[in-house]
Amino acid sequence: MQRNAEILKDILIEDYGLTKGHAQVAAATFIGLKEGYTARGLYKNKQNPDVTISASTPIEVLYGAKELSKRQQVLLSKVPKELSRVILKKRDINVNDLAHLTAKTGDEFALFTRGAQRLLIRGNSNGVRLTIQQLKNLHKQGYKFSAHTHPGTSDIARKS
Questions:
Q1: I need a surface site. Which of 4, 36, 55, 107 has the fewest CB within 10 A?
Q2: What 3-state class would DSSP assign to 63?
Q3: What is the pTM for the complete model shown?
Q4: Where are the domains of the chain?
Q5: 17-60, pLDDT tens digit by residue?
Q6: DSSP string, 117-160
Q7: 108-143: pLDDT as tens digits
Q8: Angle of CA points 33, 8, 19, to nearest 5°
Q9: What is the DSSP letter of 69?
Q10: CA 83 to CA 124: how far, in whole Å?
Q11: β-strand pairing of 144-148 with 117-122
Q12: What single DSSP character describes residue 48?
């Protein structure tokens, strides 16, 4: 299994331009899931001490090998349906959380920031359908667009 991960890592670096660290994590995740393992600890050894996966990755959540963390489950419960929104403290949500929520639900999420607050809005599998007027209102309220996700497993969705 370790050798397969090394081969895949080299391909990801040479053919797709990933950095060494990103390629190691991606290869560990893919090979681990394919072989029935999670990515956690696959590269935790003296040979690769710079890579440690301490929590689930979005790809593990997407393919059902891992679940959302308890904190991420609470976040998801606060936006149960399309166009649900919740205001959170900035420290309570990050872009990695968005990726996990999208992996779990197949829905797009948008994140806006105003000072120490973040506004999380849930969309659907096609996007977060906010009107121009709604976006203008968010801007007038002082919110700035921070991030959004792209549901799916295609290269374009994963790179977004």
A1: 36
A2: coil
A3: 0.64
A4: 2-54, 70-159
A5: 767 776 776 666 555 544 444 444 443 334 444 444 445 778 77
A6: EEEEEE-BTTB----HHHHHHHHHTT-EEEEE---SSSHHHHH-
A7: 999 999 999 999 999 999 899 988 999 999 999 999
A8: 105
A9: -
A10: 8
A11: unpaired
A12: S
